[in-house]
Write a structure and sequence with these properties.
Distance between the termini: 15 Å
Order of helices and strands: HH
Radius of gyration: 13 Å
Number of strands: 0
Structural class: mainly alpha
């Protein structure tokens, strides 16, 4: 991720996860896939460190 965007890494992970979750809800046949994507998104947002704005 470019240095200028690192303070917004959590927002980027959350946005991508939300879009993937919506796509899974619409396109996937099993709700387990959608639930797994949302759990993994939550873990990814939690693991992403907060960036300091420069």
């Amino acid at each position: 991720m470019p240095r200028q965007l690192r303070p917004y890494a959590k927002a980027a992970v959350a946005t991508l996860g939300s879009l993937a979750g919506l796509a899974a809800l619409v396109c996937a046949d099993s709700p387990e896939v959608a639930a797994a994507i949302q759990v993994l998104t939550a873990l990814g947002v939690y693991a992403q460190p907060n960036g300091a704005k420069m």
